[in-house]
Design brief:
This is Wnt inhibitory factor 1. It comes from Strongylocentrotus purpuratus. It holds the Pfam family hEGF. Keywords: Developmental protein, Disulfide bond, EGF-like domain, Glycoprotein, Repeat, Secreted, Signal. It is found in: Secreted. It is a single chain. The protein is built from 3 helices and 17 strands. The chain is α+β, with helices and mostly antiparallel strands and about 220 residues long. It has a domain of about 40 residues. A 3-stranded antiparallel sheet has the order 1-4-5, with no helix packed on it. A two-stranded antiparallel sheet has the order 2-3. β12 and β13 form a beta hairpin. The longest helix is centred in the C-terminal third of the chain and has 14 residues. It is elongated and about 80 Å long. The termini are far apart. About 20% of the residues are buried.
Amino acid sequence: MRCDYKQPKLVGYPVFSIPIKGRVPSRHTVFSVEFPCTGKGVGSALVSFRLRFQTENYDGQDIKASPLNFQIEKECEKYEGVSTSTIEVCHPPCLEGGVCSPEGRCDCKEGYYGLRCSQPLCIPHCYNGGTCIKPGLCACPEGFSGKICHLASCRDNCFNHGRCIAPGKCKCYRNWFGDICQYPVSREKSEGAQPDKDKSMPNIDKMKEGINSNYSSE
């Protein structure tokens, strides 16, 4: 990692949501980088940023798409009561157990990130519009459930005769049907096998006509 500042008075050391040394987790991981203002002045700071990932073997080769080069422009304002000398305390203060470093940045404990360590981190991230409210805990929108909001919710859980594939939509297992898979296929067949009354039941009126004609002929 390398950072170059054209206005070092305005922007402090970058803040990472993960340790800057060590291994990248094998599972899906989301991390962020923030460039906090020092609060010592007002203006626009130009930051050049390079992030490099290398393989662990001895050849030291960069992984695909590495290094990553960025150049951003950061707008900063001066904070009230902040000294123009080295910042000894974090302003605003660190949250959620974060520790203020001598450089004036918050080093966040595992599960939190951000300038003040105020943002919880969910890995994997919350799906289907869910919101991370605590480390590893998602608040799910209506129609979804599960630790990361990856499960669709259906009424009566599809009667355990099907799989919920979308909010309120069941895909029934074999031999079951219905909006929520509440009917066995045997019922559908039995209902479909009801005899046709017009074909199977005798016509009473015609029988009466036949009887009357027999009496009249006698």
